[in-house]
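Homework help board

Subject: predicted structure for assignment chain

Our instructor gave us this sequence and asked us to write out the predicted structure in token form, then describe one feature. I got the tokens but I'm not sure how to describe them. Can anyone check?
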Amino acid sequence: MASEDEQDFEIHERVEADTVEIIQAGAASVQAETVSVTQGGIQHVEARTVSIAHGGAAFVNAETVDLSNAGAGFLSADTAQLEYSGVGFAVAETVQATDSVIGVLFAGNIEGSPDVKIDARTAAAFGAGAAVALFFLRRLFR
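My token output:
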């Protein structure tokens, strides 16, 4: 049972605007020029600039992304700044990271020292190895 002091967590299906600010709430889909999220979440966001603090997003597609104590499942950006954050899969021209974890990273330029589990070279080597193994298995079981 919720007390009188607690706020309800609101979720909006689709939000389209020039500027969107989400505080202790969530949205399924957001399309805007600028998006700011504090203690909230978004399933899918497309914007020029996205800033998330103490929240998260499943899919982020933006020119500039700033995550602070936040997380994202999939991130696509020109520039991504991560501070104490985590990303499952990131594709970016430039990644600036401080004490952050990235599962799979494809980036042109990496600044800072993110904990990257799989980078572009590792993914390419894994893909080449898998292709060779499939080739031989296919030949073997013809």
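Reply (TA_rk): Your tokens look well-formed. For the description, you could write something like this. Strands lie at 10-23, 25-38, 41-53, 56-68, 71-83, 86-98, 101-112, 115-118. That's the kind of observation they're looking for.
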